[in-house]
Design goal:
The protein is an alpha/beta fold and about 220 residues long. The chain has an eight-stranded parallel beta sheet with strand order 1-8-7-6-5-4-3-2. α3 packs parallel to α4. D-xylitol-5-phosphate binds next to β2, β8 and α7.
């Protein structure tokens, strides 16, 4: 299965976003980190900004909502055309109902798990989702170190997806480099979010390096 590389524009230059979106056109999806300063202690952008990103991006949007009350806000991101919308399990009042709404609008539905959140309670809900995001750092900031202790959870999700014969993407986010991407792939990830490791160099080159690190 081909690995998907989703650069996170959290590490882009916010006043040159259109330029930086163009620079990652060879990636699969652009990962857009929405933070509300409540669910996480950091603030990025909201629907208006994400709508403009959607207008100018050469590749579709993978929206990661690190916000309280996604039940209220997530459908708006699906309506503006995001390819996938992922909300945090810890923040949603009714994850299944929300996933169904997102799918009905036409977006892929994703559920994200912080490092301390166990996957156990969500395994039976896997058919309701198109992707699971395993956070490999505490959400809120780019440039942190990959937490290898999240790998058993990723592995258990891969086993559950395989045992149930599902096509659910397993995404990792945080501290992904050409070294840690190999560890995550070995433990079952197929979709890789990378912020600083893409934008600290020439993005197209960095995307190619990450891709070749996990090429079968
Ligand atoms: C962190 C965000 C990540 C972040 C990853 O809360 O969800 O998407 O951009 O950044 P790096 O790749 O620098 O760890
Ligand atoms: Zn993210």
């Amino acid at each position: 299965m081909a690995a998907r590389i989703n650069p996170s524009i959290l590490a882009a230059d916010f006043v040159n976003l259109e330029r930086d979106l163009g620079a990652i056109a060879t990636a699969d999806l652009v990962h857009v980190d929405v933070m509300d300063n409540h669910f996480v202690p950091n603030l990025t952008f909201g629907p208006q900004m994400v709508g403009r990103i959607q207008d100018v991006s050469p590749i579709p949007l993978d929206v990661h909502l690190m916000i309280d009350d996604p039940d209220r806000w997530a459908p708006g991101y699906a309506e503006l055309g995001a390819y996938s919308v992922t909300f945090h399990a810890e923040a949603a009042a009714d994850p299944v109902a929300l996933a169904r709404r997102l799918r009905a609008i036409g977006a892929r539905a994703g559920i994200a798990l912080k490092p301390g959140t166990s996957a156990e309670g969500y395994l039976d809900l896997l058919p309701e989702f198109d992707q699971v995001l395993v956070m490999t750092v505490e959400p809120g900031f780019g440039g942190q170190s990959f937490m290898v202790e999240t790998m058993p959870k990723l592995r258990s999700l891969r086993e559950a997806v395989a045992a149930r014969g599902l096509d659910v993407w397993l995404q990792v986010d945080g501290g992904i480099t050409e070294e840690t991407i190999v560890v995550a792939a070995e433990n079952g990830a197929d979709t890789f979010v990378a912020g600083s490791s893409v934008f600290r160099g020439e993005p197209a080159e960095r995307i190619a390096i990450l891709r070749s690190a996990v090429a079968a």
